TrEMBL record:
InterPro entries the UniProt entry points to: Calcineurin-like_PHP, PP2B, Ser/Thr-sp_prot-phosphatase
MF GO annotations: calmodulin-dependent protein phosphatase activity
Coiled-coil regions listed in the entry: none
UniProt domain Serine/threonine specific protein phosphatases: residue ranges: 3-205
Lineage: superkingdom: Eukaryota
Name the UniProt record assigns to this protein: Serine/threonine specific protein phosphatases domain-containing protein
Pfam entry (one): Metallophos
GO process annotations (BP): calcineurin-mediated signaling
Amino acid sequence: MNVDSSQAFSILRTNVYKKKPSHQGLYKYDQETYDFLMDSFDLFPLACVVNNKFLAIHGGISPDLKTLEDIKKIDRYHEPPRSGLFCDILWSDPVDNDQGSLENGWRGNEVRGCSWFFGVDAVHRFLQRNNLISVIRAHEAQLDGYKMHRWKGSSDFPVVITIFSAPNYCDVYKNKGAVIKFENNTLNIQQFKDTPHPYLLPNFMDVFSWSIPFVTEKVTEMLYMLLRHEDQDQESGDEKINQEDIEKFKQITQSEKTKIFDKNKSLQKQLSKTGKEKLRSRLKFVATMMKMQKTLRSSNIFVFSEKKTKVLFNQKELVRINVCLKDCCSKEKKPLLMPCKSLII
């Protein structure tokens, strides 16, 4: 990520714990890269102060948080603990009631299984002690992407603002996303909706690996249909030649002995002519395939569609397919009629 001004840009730490990497993480990268990224999270700051009036954190405040200096004293270069100030900054939540009232200002957070719920009195004491206006935090999905915690129906500036930037969280919540913009000491909230996920092939396959079995099937089908058509023509021709051979054999047996050599020689020429016709037919087939491949290469790119998914092939991929087709054409007749397993990935 490129940042124009490193002094005005901060990425805050969230409640992310190291865990076993997902299949997607290992497929796209590797274990070493995953560990490096997880270690980098330990370097993120836990909080920041915006315009000297707003404290930005992920979760919320803590009974152990008295001043901003307490945050600076935290050793953050490790996994978050299950209790204490480090944990509370990442895990605590504002109480969910209209009055924001809590006995003693705090209550155990049974929803999270750790940290605290904090109320309006605890927030007011912290803000006054540190000369701040509001706490801006995330950590909870909101239907509109944000929530102004105006406890006790106060018309004053909200002491807590929850901002949630992930629209349609987990593809379930159907919520909007939102961000806060500070411009000329003015706070603006911008909302946005989710967009469809980019299409991913099964098991994160690349386009060529996914499409080559389909292409192979279609190419093999084309080869089979062309060869079957040629074989049918040749078989019908062979039957006619066999009948002619029989008639000529009868003529030879009935002719004079002195003409047997000449007749046999004439018959051999006719049979050799039949072989040449077969060869010529094969050459025509190869020429047809070469012409088709030349057309594909000259177009540089072509599109296959299957189940509304477009698959693109560039020039390099076409050359690979062309080489495989030439290898198939160089084999005997029988393998050409079978699926080309060497192309299937």
